[in-house]
Amino acid sequence: MADTIFTKIINGDIPCHRVYEDDKVLAFLDIGPLSPGHTLVIPKEPAETIDQLSDDAAAAVGRVLPRIARAVMSVTGAAGCNVLQNNGSIAHQEVQHVHFHVIPKSSPSDGLGIGWKSMELSGDVGAKLAEQIRAAL
Ligand code: 5GP
After folding, report:
1. What is the CATH number for 118?
2. Among the atoms of ligand 1, which is closest to the Cα of residue 29?
3. What spacing in Å lies between the alpha carbon of 32 and ligand 1's midpoint?
């Protein structure tokens, strides 16, 4: 994987507002927050997208995400938050290093706006898809 801006942040080559760090995970404030307290939680392992991340690095991130979300919400007073994780440019990923956004939501107008265009899932299609995904795991 090519180095990204997050590699430089992990290595301390460029500054960030760090909120958490251990040997496998770094969390810091997003430079372009959708709301105050918008935090990025990243594995130190260099993986571009979630499907390329090792179980070990994913577990390390997952272990601290709830704690970071609690701290962000406590400090900002937000009533809720979104945890967002984009993979691929088609899915709005701009930095090619796995990262989880923790985005506090204090009012309907701040934080993450979501266009949720849901479809219906028929029984036949659902059964087939679930079977295919189970087989791919
Ligand atoms: P993506 O669209 O890839 O899910 O989100 C990338 C995020 O990284 C954006 O929210 C953007 O503001 C943030 N970002 C990009 N460059 C920097 C940087 O140099 N420092 C920090 N703290 N955040 C960055």
Report:
1. 3.30.428.10
2. 22
3. 7
